[in-house]
């Protein structure tokens, strides 16, 4: 694998980004890509050079204005101070873990996301759907990569379950330790391409990275025998150069992956339910016991799995809750509290009238 410092094209510079610089003085400004984010600092790479710069951007207001891994910036050639952030071709983000209302940027300008699961107890349709929604919302091609196929009695069964999630979905079963087994992934790992890895801990992401990069730089951990869950080994988002010339972005195991602003992704992943809902007699159908409900009719005749409807409802409610602004939530809570007090007052009044 080459160790020379890459040029712009190798870093993923495309006409999409170049077209945004026509009005800039490139004799004074330099395009760079964010390769890693540390506290207050960005590790960036440009045309044949690497450096570290401050993360503060002039005029940054919202979370989306701050750079994340994969972003392209223009910096001053002499001082290396950030000048501005270029528009993104894609952006992964989620509600930040915890009880706050913040949004956490995960990665920008990704071409493909490898959604990694394993052929054991870790395999979860619900988790795969969650990651698919995130990928579709970002406009990035998802590829489901099922690891530990060499340890499963019937890895094809896991692949068939995944394939049923969406028509045309790309699913690959691999042995992460075997480079020949990973040849099926090479189409997405070529020069200038950016691949992100997503998946819970213990599914073999670190082993995959070590094999795809031809190094052993990423620590791997054993899984627990009782539930096949792994110990977290990745602690920060960072780029790794692939042997085929592309770039691989590793992300920590996201056990609190909360959807936010993902209505379009939900509609695409659950397009079968959305299409059925359009055929319901009432536009505000709750898909429970209403007359003329096309969704319940599909469940009754076996065209729709009720568990899938439940998962859609759960993710839709989560996205609506996380997308709601703090002001909207406070207004809703006040309205609900007012209704509760009114009902309680009415009940107390009726009791007082009783003989």
UniProtKB/TrEMBL annotation:
Residues 108-255 form the EngC GTPase domain. Zn(2+) binds at residues 280, 285, 287, 293. Its EC number is 3.6.1.-. Binds 1 zinc ion per subunit. It is an enzyme of class 3 (hydrolase). GO terms for cellular component: cytoplasm. Monomer. Associates with 30S ribosomal subunit, binds 16S rRNA. This is Small ribosomal subunit biogenesis GTPase RsgA.
């Amino acid at each position: 694998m080459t160790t020379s410092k890459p040029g712009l094209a190798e870093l993923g510079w495309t006409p999409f980004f170049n077209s945004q610089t026509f009005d800039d003085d490139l004799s004074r400004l330099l395009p760079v890509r964010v390769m890693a984010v540390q506290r207050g600092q960005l590790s960036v790479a440009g045309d044949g050079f690497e450096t570290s710069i401050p993360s503060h951007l002039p005029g940054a207001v919202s979370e989306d204005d701050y750079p994340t891994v994969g972003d392209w910036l223009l910096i001053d050639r002499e001082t290396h101070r950030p000048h501005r952030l270029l528009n993104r071709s894609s952006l992964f983000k989620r509600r930040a873990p915890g009880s706050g209302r913040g949004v956490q940027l995960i990665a920008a300008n990704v071409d493909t996301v490898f959604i990694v699961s394993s052929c054991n107890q870790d395999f979860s349709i619900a988790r795969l759907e969650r990651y698919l929604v995130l990928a579709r919302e970002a406009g990035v091609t998802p590829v489901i990569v099922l690891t530990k196929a060499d340890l499963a009695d019937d890895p094809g069964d896991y692949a068939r379950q995944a394939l049923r999630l969406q028509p045309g979905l790309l699913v690959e079963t691999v042995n992460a330790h075997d480079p020949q087994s990973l040849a099926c992934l090479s189409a997405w790992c070529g020069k200038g391409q950016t691949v992100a890895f997503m998946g819970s801990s213990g599914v073999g992401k670190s082993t995959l990275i070590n094999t795809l990069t031809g190094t052993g730089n990423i620590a791997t951990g054993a899984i627990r025998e009782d539930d096949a869950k792994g110990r977290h080994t990745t602690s920060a988002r960072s780029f790794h150069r692939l042997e085929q010339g592309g770039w691989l972005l590793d992300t920590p195991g996201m056990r609190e992956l909360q959807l936010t602003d993902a209505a379009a992704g939900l509609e695409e992943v659950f397009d079968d339910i959305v299409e059925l809902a359009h055929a319901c007699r009432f536009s505000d159908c709750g898909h429970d016991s209403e007359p003329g409900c096309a969704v319940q009719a599909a469940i009754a005749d076996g065209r729709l799995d009720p568990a899938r409807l439940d998962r859609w409802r759960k993710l839709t409610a989560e996205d609506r809750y996380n997308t709601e602004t703090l002001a909207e939530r406070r207004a809703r809570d006040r309205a609900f509290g007012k209704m509760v007090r009114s009902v309680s007052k009415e009940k107390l009044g009726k009791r007082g009238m009783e003989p």
